[in-house]
Amino acid sequence: MRASDTLRLLLLAAIWGASFLCMRVVAPEFGAINTAFLRVLFACTGLGAILLLLRHQLAFNGKFRVSLLLGVINSGIPFLMYCLAARWLPAGYSAILNATAPLMGSLAGCLFFQETLSVKRWLGVFIGLIGIMVITATGEAALSGGIIAGVLACLVATGCYGVAGFLTRRWLTERGGLNARLSALGSQIGATLFLLPFFAWSVSSGPAVHWAQPHLWFFVAALGLICTASAYILYFRLIGDIGPLRTLTVTFLIPPFGVLWGYAVLGETISQGFIAGALVVTAAVWLIVSPEKTAKLTEVK
């Protein structure tokens, strides 16, 4: 993998790590479902504005419906699952469980997409999960039905991420590809349409929301425009360049970045467990993304 690909992977992790900071600020005030919908709505609007300013042709080449469906799988369902999980899980646990995406992607690849993984990469997946566990060693959460439901919701989300990576390659990359901006726009339109009924139900039947809070709208805009619109452009480019499994390793890097953002903005402290876990995660990512050694056969003439 090229150095530029590694840098883009780190940038994507930093952006998505910041998304959990934004959600921690906004969701308690606006509600989880409302926050999820506003996230994809702002992302959809921002991507549309970017394409309009660039005078980019909306040439989906017959892949518009596919991109809508990918948006439901890769954004709509996961965002909704994380919203539901937020009802039961302590702060930060969703970000930690988000790191199971490479494992879920590996399982999905083996079960449904005829993918094979080397022992080294399987080792990297499991070492990464150990690193995530070390990071959360100082946290405590009493085991209960709610906690189990929240964990299952997060696993459904990461399962969607794992499947969506392979579907993106099969439906888009292997069929001539699709511009990353168009892929991102189509996916966010699909996610917006999927979440719209949930948002309508929340506004009409849920608790009253105090919408006139300008500082929260700043975080909503950052969540939608930067952490979703810009991030998904980067994400789809990475899938095309380095493949779905390597791209999914970004989820190993999100929790460390999430903690760093929390430290910088919210004054949260960094424990020794975090530092040790971050080092383990770094080693795991290297195992997964580093090139395989192939034996060279020589011909005998």
Helices and strands: which structural class?
A: mainly alpha
Helical element count? 12
What would the average pLDDT be, to the nearest integer? 80
What is the CA-CA span between the terminal residues? 34 Å
- The sequence of SSEs as H and E is HHHHHHHHHHHH
Tally the structural domains.
1
Overall strand count? 0
**Assembly state here?**
single chain
What portion of the residues fall into strands of 2 or more residues? under 5%
Whole-angstrom Rg? 19 Å
Q: Which segments are poorly predicted (pLDDT under 50) over 5 or more consecutive residues?
A: 295-301
**Helix content percent band:** over 70%
Largest sheet: none
Q: What overall geometry do the principal axes of the alpha carbons give?
A: globular
Report what the structure shows:
With 301 residues, the chain is mainly α. It has one domain (3-289). It has twelve helices and no strands. Helix 6 runs antiparallel to helix 12. It starts with a helix and ends in a 12-residue tail after the last helix. The model is unreliable at 295-301 (pLDDT under 50).
What's the arrangement of secondary structure elements?
Elements: H1 3-30, H2 32-53, H3 64-85, H4 93-97, H5 101-112, H6 119-135, H7 145-171, H8 180-205, H9 214-242, H10 244-248, H11 250-266, H12 272-289
Helix pairs in contact: 1-2, 1-9, 1-11, 2-3, 2-8, 2-9, 3-7, 3-8, 5-7, 6-12, 8-9, 11-12
Family: Belongs to the EamA transporter family.
Pfam families: EamA (PF00892)
Domain EamA: 9-136, 149-289
